Amino acid sequence: MLNLESNTALQNVLATLEVERQKIASTQKKGYIFLALGIIIIIASFSLNFPVPAAIAGLIPAIYAGIILYQIADELKAYKEAFKINVIGTALKSLDQSLVIEPYKGILDYEFESTQIFSQSPDRYNTEDLVSGHAGKTAFYFAEVHAEYKTEVQTKNGTRTEWHDIFKGILFAADFNKNFNGVTILKPKDLLGTMSAWFSKNLFSFGDNDFVTLENAEFSKTFITHATDQVEARYILTPAMMERILALNKNTKSTVSLSFINSRMYIAFPLSRNYFEAPVFKTLLNPDFLDQDITVINFMYNIIQELDLNTRIWGKN
């Protein structure tokens, strides 16, 4: 378990970045104050029926605010990047030397779709903060993903585009050390109604006998399991593996989804928070501010142990 307070290297990195954060926060506050002042002047002048003086008087502080915020933009970007590479990167190295974070990389959309976990192809796709490494013998990686699809709604003013989440959270992938002949999918049981429609249009045809009946009653209440190969699905989902997946799922707020495909195991963790982001108006020296990020790092790393993926009962062909 990674401990922030006892990590001297991490504390030194935070102390150095805190100076930069204070400078950026001070400049941004100044910019926001002038922007607010400009808006207040414009509103007040319009209410007093002086629209032309309002436009002139209000634009001066507003333009100055824009210049201030523009000038600090590069420093802000560099600070956020340094936070991910130096702070999160140091935290990862403290847990395992093999772990690295690449802020501008993620899990590409074609791999997202190839997991076969998700019900629709995204029309808008964003991914960042790729973390990769090894836990024992097992290679793994995960990244934040936000995938959306769009619908067109006809209104009296024309067509309006609406965006809907397909998935927002962390997508985790690990080497399962076995070449799968088929595909095995686990989805939350409450999505049963949407599954049949999805499988009917999926790239892989599961057929009429794709549903897998498993002996673990709690597992069957939590997940619906589909597979192209019933025997292989039961070989993967041993009684011990089902118990481990249930234990893992109990530590999450929303039910996870999993797939076993192309010798990898994918786990989708729905999350609402954006992790690994540098604060601007909160100090980096608060011992609690990294708690949620550290918890996620530890949780993802420990999945390998929780699911016992380092036990090599199979070998790849």
Protein model, in words:
This protein is of the alpha+beta class and about 325 residues long. The chain has two domains: about 1-95; about 100-315, no CATH class. About 45% of the residues lie in helices and about 25% in strands. The protein has nine helices and eight strands. The protein has helices at about 10-45, 50-70, 75-95, 110-115, 190-200, 215-220, 230-235, 240-250, 290-305; strands at about 100, 125-135, 140-155, 160-175, 185-190, 225, 255-260, 265-270. The chain has an eight-stranded antiparallel β-sheet. β2 and β3 form a beta hairpin. The two termini are about 35 Å apart. InterPro entries: DUF3137. Keywords: Membrane, Transmembrane, Transmembrane helix. This is DUF3137 domain-containing protein.
List keywords for this structure.
single chain, 317 residues, alpha+beta, 2 domains, eight-stranded antiparallel sheet, 9 helices, transmembrane, DUF3137, transmembrane helix, membrane, DUF3137 domain-containing protein
How do the helices and strands line up, and which of them pair or pack?
Blueprint: H1 8-47, H2 51-71, H3 73-95, E1 100-102, H4 109-114, E2 124-135, E3 138-155, E4 158-175, E5 184-188, H5 192-201, H6 217-222, E6 223-227, H7 230-236, H8 239-250, E7 257-261, E8 264-270, H9 291-306
Antiparallel strand pairs: 1-2, 2-3, 3-4, 4-8, 5-6, 5-7, 7-8
Helix pairs in contact: 1-2, 1-3, 3-9
Summarize the structure.
With 317 residues, the protein is α+β, with helices and mostly antiparallel strands. The chain contains nine helices and eight strands. It folds into two domains: 1-95; 98-317, no CATH class.
